[in-house]
Amino acid sequence: MRRGAAVSVVAHGETLLCVNMFCQKGGSDKVYHLTLEQVAGGFVVNYANGRRGSSLQDGTRTPQPVSEADARALFAAIKKEKLKEYT
What we know:
Layout: E1 14-23, E2 30-39, E3 42-51, E4 57-60, H1 68-82
Antiparallel strand pairs: 1-2, 2-3, 3-4
């Protein structure tokens, strides 16, 4: 790893909410998976996205666990934003 490079750790736990969306506009074929998961210390919102059939890039929108209320609000906001492009 490069010195000073940021490290993103995606914590996985029990999935409470999950939504799978896709976009096939303009010849693209993309997917976006969004999950709200309970982990030790709270809740996290994770995602995976990319071209259908290829390796997906995963990440987290919550670098540290947050409260359930905060995680649900973030999940809803991301879902609302992504539904403008994905179905």
